[in-house]
Amino acid sequence: MVDSLSRPSGNVTGVNNYLSGLGQKRLELLRDLVPNAAVIGMLVNPNFPDAESQSKDVTEAARKLGQQVHVVNATTENDFDRAFATLVQLQARALLVTVDPVFNSGRKQLIALAARHKIPAMYFGREFVVDGGLMSYASNLGDGYRKAGIYVGRILKGAKPADLPVVQPTKFELVINLKTARALGLTVPMIMQMTADEVIE
Q1: What is the pTM of this model?
Q2: Tally of CB atoms within 10 A around 199
Q3: Tens digits of per-residue pLDDT, 149-166?
Q4: Where does 20-140+170-200 sit in CATH, by number?
Q5: Torsion over CA of 161, 165, 168 and 171, rounded to 10 degrees?
């Protein structure tokens, strides 16, 4: 949509709230919480435009960490049960859910399946953890909305979108659900609880 993030050109600019490039950090945090997970599953929607990039980032990070990651595909909510059956077959001991609108809209089903199969999961948004998911690492949406409002004001006062860089997130949040951790038989290290931006009891 834009020529570059720093100089968009044309008539488009904006705020990027979902950085799919956070896969490596999400993987590291998941490993910190579930260090004995020999196999980690990665749920991917291959139809999502950024799916290949997300998969590549995580698999490269996993290789550097000596971690085994298996990609499991799901294109619709109808695929979730099959995806978790595959994770069980692979003996995955943790799951990283990649950024995707299908996963966001079906988050309650994903959370329920992760709980039923006792698979600790890392998500890409705080709302997953509020709804009972284990953990998320993502940009601060409130901060992104505030920046978008500032841009609207500037454009209404005559600024040209082409001259406004696409804003990248600068604030990121680690959110952990302790109740879910206990249900999964996990002990969240105190250092992780202290560094988390939000701990849900």
Answers
A1: 0.87
A2: 16
A3: 999 999 999 999 988 999
A4: 3.40.50.2300
A5: -90
